[in-house]
Amino acid sequence: MDYLEEFLEEQNQQNLLRKLKPASQRKDGKITIRGKEYFDFSSNDYLGISNHPKIIEATREAVAKYGTSAAASRLLSGDLDIFHNLEKELAKFKGKESALILNSGYQANVGIIKALIGKGDAVFSDKLSHASIVDGILLSGAQLFRYHHNDVKHLEMLLKKYRNKYRRALIITESVFSMDGDFPPLKEIVTLKNQHHCTLMVDEAHATGIFGKNGSGKIEEENLIDQIDVSMGTFGKALGSFGAYVAASKTLTQYLINTCRSFIYSTALPPSVIAANLASLAVIKNEPERRQSLLKNAKYFRDQLSAGGLKVKGESQIVPLIVGDAAKCVALSKKLIDAGYWVLPIRPPTVPNGEARLRFSLTYHHSPEVLEKLIEEIKNV
Ligand SMILES: *Cc1c(COP(=O)(O)O)cnc(C)c1O
Q1: Using CA atoms, how far apart are residues 124 and 200, in angstroms rounded to an integer?
Q2: pLDDT tens track for 78-109
Q3: What pLDDT does 14 receive?
Q4: Is 36 exposed, middle or buried (0-12, 13-18, 19+ CB in 10 A)?
């Protein structure tokens, strides 16, 4: 097994070795690592509710009532009533007929994609799609066509050229992209999906809880609920909990219950997590000021950086500061960490060459005062 050590050595020499860094505390937009407290700009706790008292209380009550485990797949004896309560609430939240809970976003994408398409089918997916989408496509055996990021002209060209050579076709996009913080032209993708008889799947991992009047995501904000066939999202980001969902027609969720292997062959989530998810949906409903304030602060932060002559991307709560050179980006991250801001460099191959960046993931707890100081710090280094 020499290749293991060789690999690690090589990664280390290129400064690409991934390492874990245990934190003793993480809440309210801050993280404590090796006894030092930082402002945490690397979490997805966008609404700052992973320590919300109501969600903690709901979790406690569910442990007392149901115990600590679902102890089986839902198709065996793990199908507690609380899953159905959450699925009803989710269907309402997303404006769809039905919803199904999956164990994580990763498992959801891998399982759903593999269930919907296979050999002889085609998938058209954005070049920046999340690894879980890519893995689902690989597992499915369908032919993958990657279109340039958010480029509907390129998508249209590929559809015209290849769609008819395949039986079924699936288009997949995220509604907020995690490394760029930007949005796809969803309306135009819907038009293409209809013209070319495709199924459309949208991953709202970074949009759920943040966008739309009810906070259900970009699909709601853009009035496209009825046009999206498969709408998935997660509880582990803005919703401050864990797990994933798919909202769709009743037929589609029933189909998944019968075919989605990551649903069938995995122990259901602990009931306490489901209770937390229910409670966090209530928080989204009752505390809209969290998402409003987050988006306002993110706009302020992005505008200030941009006005200072720095290159930023996107329009969401994710603010990538493009540094360009990878080594420079690492150095900048080190300096900001020294100054008390936990922000990590994102380098190729995760992003294109020459586009190394610092990815600021803002949360509700990052007030304009905190951001102002951070902007000063960035300008200084
Ligand atoms: C985070 C993420 C996932 C994975 O979700 P988990 O619940 O963390 O497994 C899937 N898709 C996208 C776009 C994501 O950002």
Answers
A1: 10
A2: 999 999 999 999 999 999 999 999 999 999 99
A3: 85
A4: exposed
Q: d(Cα 339, Cα 321) in Å, to the nearest integer?
A: 17
Q: Ligand 1: which residue has its CA nearest to atom 7? A: 105
Supply the residue whose CA is at minimum distance from atom 6 of ligand 1: 105
- Mean pLDDT across 160-178: 98
Write the pLDDT tens digit of every residue in 151-165: 999 999 999 999 999
> Could you tell me if the CB of 50 is within 6 A of ligand 1?
no
Mean pLDDT of 207-232: 98
The tokens for 73 are: 């797949």
Q: Which pair of tokens denotes residue 367?
A: 């007030």
Question: Is 36 an active-site residue?
Answer: no
> Which of 233, 231, 235, 232 shows the shortest CA–CA distance to 277?
235
- Taken in order 294, 297, 299, 301, is the CA torsion positive or negative? negative
d(CA 114, CA 94): 23
The DSSP letter of residue 71 is -
Cβ atoms of residues 183 and 176 within 8 Å: yes
Q: How confident is the model at residue 17 (pLDDT cuts 50, 70, 90)?
A: confident
Q: Is the CB of 43 under 6 A from ligand 1?
A: no
For residue 322, give the H/E element and its range.
strand 318-324
Of residues 217, 210, 200, 231, the one with CA closest to residue 318: 210
pTM of the entire structure? Answer: 0.97
